[in-house]
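Format notes (please read before filing issues)

Several people have asked whether sequences and C-alpha cells are stored in separate files. They are not. Every record keeps both together, in the order shown below: the sequence lines, then the C-alpha cell lines. Line labels are part of the format and must not be stripped during preprocessing.
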Amino acid sequence: MFITFEGIDGCGKSIQISKFRAILKEQGIPLVVTSEPGGTKIGKAIRNILLNVHNTDMANLTELFLYLADRAQHVSEVIKPALDAGKWVICDRYYDATTVYQGIALGQHEKLIAQLNHEACLGCEPDITFLLDCPAEVGLKRTEKREKTDKKRDRFERKSLDFHVKIRYGYLALAHKHKDRFKIIDATLHEDHVARKIREIISPYLPVV
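Then the structure lines:
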C-alpha cells in the first residue's frame, strides 16, 4: 500500500502520520514513513533551498523543477524500492502537493506538471490520499503558534492568507476530481477524532487478527 497525506500548512499532517504509523506498527506491517521534500540526502539539500525564507526571489519554474528533482530522487531511492519489497509506504506530501502549490496556486501549466510528475514517479501512484482539510485561517494560526515555541515558519508558511486559501480550494478541487483515491478528513476536529476517522478508513486493508 502506498498512502499519502496532503493538506494546507498547519492542517496536522505530522501528528496524524505519527499516530497512523503507530497503528500500522501494532499490526506488524512492514513500512517506510517518508516525506517530501527532503526524503533523501540529496532531497534534504533541495529542501533547504525550497523552504529557506531568504529565497524570496526564486522563479516559479525554478521552484517547480526543484520539487520534481526531489521527487525523482525520492521515488528512485526510497519509495519504489520499498513498494517493490512489499512494504507499505506512508508519505507526507507527494505529487498532489506540486499540482496544487506550483500548479493551481502559482498558475503554472498543469499539463506540464502532470507530465513531469509522471516521469518522476516511475509508476508509483498512491492507493489512498488522506486530505486533512481545514480553513486557511485555522492552518495559519497553528503555524503561528508553532513559531512561538521552537519552530520557525518556512517560506510557504509565511505566505499570505489568500495564497493558503487558494491551496485549500485547490486541494478540494483535486479531491473532487479523484474521488476514488482521496479521503477528505475534517482537520478542525480534535486530533484523536481525526486519527479515529483515518483508522476507520484504513481498517479494511489491515490484516485480520
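For reference, the curators noted about this record: The beta strands are 2-6, 31-35, 88-92, 128-133, 182-186. The helical segments are 13-26, 41-51, 60-84, 95-105, 110-121, 136-147, 161-177, 191-202.
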